[in-house]
Amino acid sequence: MYGNDFSAPGGGSDEAPGGLLGEVEAAEAELRAAAARGRRGGPAPDEDLAAYFAEVVDAEQKIEPRDWMPDAYRRTLIRQIAQHAHSEIIGMQPEGNWISRAPSLKRKAILLAKVQDEAGHGLYLYAAAETLGISRDELVQLLLDGRQKYSSIFNYPTLSWADVGAIGWLVDGAAIVNQVPLCRCSYGPYARAMIRVCKEESFHQRQGYEILHTLAHGTPAQQAMAQDAVDRWWYPSLAMFGPPDGNSTHSAQSMAWKIKRFSNDDLRQRFVDMCVQQAEVLGLRIPDDDLRWNDERQAHDYTQPDYDELLRVISGDGPCNRERIAHRRAAHSDGAWVREAAAAYAAKRAGQKETVAA
Amino acid sequence: MNGPFDFALALADDALIAAQRLAEWTTRAPEMEEDIALANIALDQLGAARLLLSYAGEVEGAGRDEDALAYLRDDREFRNALLVELPNGDFAVTMAKLFFLAAYQLPLYTALAGCADQRLAAIGAKARKESAYHLDHGALWVKRLGDGTEESHRRMQAAVDQVWPYTHELFAADPAAPVDPATLRPAFDEVVGPVLAEATLTRPDSGWAPGGGRAGVHTEHLAYLLAEMQVLHRAHPGAQW
Question: pLDDT class for A358, splitting at 50, 70, 90?
Fold first, then answer.
């Protein structure tokens, strides 16, 4: 129980913004209901496996690790879950950058607990990926070799304490909007992992919002710090939803498989609409002169992020890509002798037990 | 040391500086599970530090809260033992520091739980359960590294040799304190001896016993640690966070 010792800021609801936590709970209830309904006992001996797979997905039942699944479905899931896990692990760095300098002991405790949560998310996402027949070690190697990606947002630097707040509010907020539909993903282990992750993320988002709220109502220097952070993180956060629908390579198939439920642009719109009202409560300005309510669409018009910049960052040329990977590689190689020692020690113990047993 | 303020402050500073050092491992640990474990221990230490600092501030009665004590004192006013401020070094040095600190804090908090000061007793009762876990964790790694590979044995022995002299300061006699640290030495030795033996490590017999932390005379390392820890808080005097 770390970090529950602060009150909810003005606006005051305990609920994650936009009723998203309610959707997580609905997804959880759906999952239980699907389990209770039970699936047909598996394909008949001569039944077409692909047809059975499609039937399970269409019936909103979950595909489980023992089930037959199309190779492309398996590959897509491995890629997506691994990238998600990598993002949690790399994502520890920008916020971890401020643990040592957190401006109060309470904030230090909350931030440390938050970054620790992210390590936990990484671990259970790797575990979910492992159910698809690949090991965590292999996946970590793919990350270190630059053959699998992580979310581009973590290639931006955290330059002030307010960035910790902006990451919580905007980056975790965008992540929740992205991830809530994944709680209903057709692959059971991923859906279940996402329910757990989303619940914790909603707490993270609240604490980021609370940091910004405190700064925005603080001294002029603190207010400026908060606005500067929002100015820098707004567009990269919009870019987290990926390229516009027309250019998204993986979307259509993932929607058919019910891995994905909404398009990139739909989710981005949902995020913008959610942030506008929150920014007002915070007293911070979203850096978009063209942001306005569109009565016809019943949604906000807004300026798109710079997708060329997104592509540059994805391809490795963001401000911190090199540092983030170098940091992870260094931790991995510096720890090699420790992991070897633990393995050697365990082998000796196992050997001793056998000797005793014999 | 004299009085409950100095005593609480010494314990608080041990915990706070230990937390600050352990948190430096975040994103750098040898395994992801260890990243989580070290953050856990850092959070425990930070939690104990906050309780002790708040209590010290109340006892002092000068209106200083946990943050005023953590962020607005200079190194000469810190009362932690030198052991906790030593740089992390490699993982073996960190585990030597953790193991020795926990082997001291566990009997300390256990004794504190039974002391006459009710606030200190409550803090001791909470913290000793956490210390028991820290001790388990540190002891396990000392054994793994000591009795692991040739390289890990060499590193772990070097770490013990480096950190051991700093353990003596933890047990400097203070008969007037709620718990006299000198009385904790037998419990410490009883735990440390067998673990080092099982880890195939030897206890150095150097007579060097650096000290001074309890009087505010530290190593060169503490001022750098504080400079980083305090920089943002001090840049905005009076601000709320």
Answer: low
What distance in Å separates the CA atoms of residue B164 and residue B37, rounded to the nearest whole number? 23
Q: What percent of chain A is modeled with pLDDT above 70?
A: 94
* Position B106 confidence tier, pLDDT thresholds 50, 70, 90: very high
DSSP characters for B176-192?
TSSS-GGGGHHHHHHHH
Q: Do B26 and A219 touch (CB under 8 A)?
A: no
Best to test chain B binding among A159, A337, A349 (most B CBs inside 10 Å): A337
Q: Do A344 and B149 touch (CB under 8 A)?
A: yes
The whole-angstrom distance between A40's CA and the closest CA on chain B is 39
The minimum CA-CA distance between A164 and chain B, rounded to whole Å, is: 12
A218: pLDDT confidence band, cut at 50, 70 and 90?
very high
For chain A positions 196-255, those within 8 Å of chain B (CB to CB) are 211, 214, 218-219, 221-222
Q: How far is CA B154 from CA A87, B63, B92, in A?
A: 36, 49, 10
**Domain edges within chain B:** 3-235
* A221 contact residues in B (CB cutoff 8 A): 236, 239
Average pLDDT over residues A258-262: 89
**The domain defined by B3-235 carries CATH number 1.20.1250.20:** no
| Cα–Cα distance, A5 to B43 (Å, whole number) | 14
Q: Is the dihedral of CA A278, A281, A286, A291 positive or negative?
A: positive
Average pLDDT, chain A: 91
pTM of the model: 0.94
